[in-house]
Specification:
The structure is a single chain. With about 260 residues, the protein is an alpha/beta fold. The chain contains 9 helices and 7 strands, in the order βααβαβαβααβαααββ. The strands form 2 sheets. The chain has a 5-stranded parallel β-sheet, with helices on both faces. Strands 6-7 form a two-stranded antiparallel ribbon. The chain is globular, with a radius of gyration of 20 Å. The mean pLDDT is about 95.
Amino acid sequence: MVGPSRPQIVLFGSSIVQMSFGHGGWGAILSEVYARKADIILRGYYGWNSTRALEVVDKVFPKDAEVQPSLVVVYFGGNDSMAPHPSGLGPHVPLTEYVDNMKKIALHLQSLSDSTRLIFLSCPPVDEAKVRQNQSPYLSEVIRTNELCKTYSDACVELCQELGLEVVDLFSTLQKADDWKSVCFTDGIHLSAEGSKLVAGEILRVIKEAEWKPSLHWKSMPTEFSEDSSYDLVSADGKETVNSSEWTYFWEEQWD
């Protein structure tokens, strides 16, 4: 492990997590915002549902790890909410089982340490027409509807309220965008850069508003090696150096 040790923020979920560093993704945005403050660690698994996640959660997050994450952002539900395949195969998970799986995942993560915080992301909507249009010839028909997505999203939000966990309602968040179906997705399911901005913005809002001690809001966290140095860039008058450790002018968007 490289040093100095930083707080760990782990993104744990299915393809929306695995792909979150591409297409201007929300994982990449968080990594930029938390540069020199925390390490953003990706644990994303394309195609997974909550049942597969529960099977390995103790391997991804072992209780005896020397360092435990400060924050885990959890997303499962999109694949669970797919309509069941006639064969009984596939990623669909019945609603009650999905809720039970997510509760067990939450309880395991809460047991890692007293200072490990959680944010759950609920099931987002889809562009149903584009999903049908992009049907792969190599896969059996994928049936995703916003009726099912909303049912699983609502169940996730309700569970988080029951457990006192922070949650981002992605089903509602993405639909706040004008023309959200064409703006928020690359293929009707996975997030575009604009969709990811909405997700990142909500995650950052939740972190800022959460009454966690210590705060995990990026502005409240120390910046690594931020002391002034004679090796910094020289000011225009040539009389002193300018500390650049807190500069954010190069961000595409200035996040709060």
